[in-house]
Amino acid sequence: MNSRALSKTFGWMFIGLLVTFLTGYIISANPNMLFNVMSTTGLILIVIIEFALVIFLSTRITKMKPITAKISFLLYSFVSGLTFSSIFVVYEITSVMFVFLITAIVFAIFAVIGVVTKIDLTKIGTYLMMALVAVLLCTLVNMFLNSPSFDLILSIAIVLIFIGFTAYDVQKIIRLDELNLINEDNLAIYGALELYLDYINLFLHLLSIFGNAKDN
Questions:
Q1: Of 135, 139, 161, 216, which is the most exposed, with the fewest CB atoms less than 10 Å away?
Q2: Backbone phi, then psi, for 181, in 5-degree steps?
């Protein structure tokens, strides 16, 4: 993958994260907006929009105009930021910033591995997806068991899975660029979405492990 395309991918990912975190922080500071977002109806609507945007971007990325891809990605980042407002309510801001830094370091290390490794990570992606499905099923079971220790184990497992996904997705983006099936701008958005999701999942579960909750 050429350095220009790679720079665009990480640039858009950073913009997406910035939009998400700023939106979340602003919403958390407004009680009325926060109440509407956290209502049952609000959360259901947000989840539906998020899924619709991810499916739209993933399935139409080769056919849509670059401006449509960029707007869709920014809209997804904004909508995700609405639910992100809860972390600023639950956790100390210093704790959020500290875990964000940890996540950035871990993400950067494995993104670099994805760029420089000569190992074919294609098969690893299948195993990672299988592991993720297994962990999600266990998470559903733990909703009934309500075991804090099991929840910690699941969070650690998810962190490990998305560490693997980070290297895998970076290598996948490089190979897509080499195949030249998607124009540079659209590939940057597609790659940014994939890496954004990796980063967010890493961050949320590292926060659940290391974050300091506010005193109520």
A1: 216
A2: -90, -20
